[in-house]
Amino acid sequence: MASTSHPHLTRLANAVLQPGFVGTTAPDWVRRRIADGLASVVLFGRNIESPEQVAALTAALRAENPDLIVAIDEEAGDVTRIAARTGASWPGNLALGAIDDVELTERVARDIGRRLREIGVSLDFAPSADVNSNPMNPVIGVRSFGAGTDVVSRHTAAWIRGLQSAGVAACAKHFPGHGDTNVDSHHGLPRFTADADDIARTALPPFTAAMEAGVRAVMTAHMLVPAYDTELPATLSPAILGGVLRGQLGFGGLVVTDGIEMGAVSGPYGIAGATVRAVAAGVDAVCVGGENAEQATADELRDALVRAVLDGTLPEERLTEAAERVREFAAWSAGLGRDAAPAPDASDIGLVAARRAVRVHSGSGAKLPLTADPHVVELSPTMSLAVDGATPWGVAEPLRALRPGTTSVRVCEAELAGEADLLDRVALAPATGRELVVVVRDAARHPWMSRALTGLVSRRPDALVVEMGVPAGDRVGAVHLTTYGATRVSGIAVAEVLAGAA
């Protein structure tokens, strides 16, 4: 075993891993690993039941190492871990970019940081600094501040200032920019085909803005960027990590991978192979455990790093450098939390922002607010693995709180494919003589959803349509409302508009 034969290398290997784990209390194997050099852990929705429980969990982990990095992927918006069971209390990046008030963005991020700091988190894998220039992007979308480099740069910097002012370290992602892609890297290898000049002009400025705002962690993208490297994805590319991020942009902080088990890199190389290649290429910390959270996986990756040093695949100096950079970041982030000003009381800034993000486009014959209890039809897509599929979303429930007679149905693609007259039966028939609200999420990106929406509006041109994803295409419906995200507060905000309670 590496842990007994090469204790020094084992401690170095443990230091560069950021494993997740199963359970809501600290597992014994994680405690033992911290004592043997593990410097980071990552929390996921499965580890979270309540603020009090998470605070106790992180305190137990830090009993082994006060500077332990406790990381989480809390973008707020649609990608939430602390509110995976309820839906986020803050709108996501696209809503903030649509409002385009950098002070508001900073206040929202400060509030997120307050909540994270209270439960013992020291590193947040956010914000997304990706410019979502491809509206068909299957994995970024509402996670981006928008399709324009300037707006993304402004709000990336503001979000980082806000979060870090609350004592939690930010992490700009996904370098060198995942916005102009059409493949989800959880499943395959995206290609960013712009030339180097275009990348420098459109995708890199938000990362420069992040660095100027004080970010000390950057997360890599599992995607191929032929302008820089024709063979290796960014996470595994010395040309991108050393040449562009470290060299061209001058970044001296922590480089962390996106989940190393994601298909874009684990498919071709295996999890262990991708881990070794990433560290050799210049990565300092390897995030793992979103899907592979067993002790056996952490053991496998630790031992693979040790073997790679012994067989010459990974220079010991590179592993030592990575481990030292993790320790430096751990000490800095711990100090950030200790030195932050006292957090203000809990606020409703998330709902305030969600209300400001709602846009209403009225057509001919539009009627708003609703004059009676409506029937709500929610067309539900299959989400990227970045979004917890169990997180509640939609308009029906918050609208029912305001108009108790509201009825609703949720329909997915498979159900429509299996029953040709389903919409007639569950959507149109119950709405006879009543107002109809149709809720979609990224309709332009899902042909089945676009067809269903078109069919419903052709039969009911008086329908009110709510888009809770990236707005694109025609604004169909007598009234078309956009929320720029499907968070809990976004649902409340648009329900208030529909019911006349705004």
From TrEMBL:
GO terms for molecular function: hydrolase activity, hydrolyzing O-glycosyl compounds. Gene3D superfamilies: Glycoside hydrolase, family 3, N-terminal domain. Residues 37-327 form the Glycoside hydrolase family 3 N-terminal domain. SUPFAM superfamilies: (Trans)glycosidases (SSF51445). Keywords: Glycosidase, Hydrolase. InterPro entries: GH, Glyco_hydro_3_N, Glyco_hydro_3_N_sf, NagZ_Beta-hexosaminidase. One of its GO terms (biological process) is peptidoglycan turnover. Belongs to the glycosyl hydrolase 3 family. This is Hydrolase. It comes from Streptomyces longispororuber.
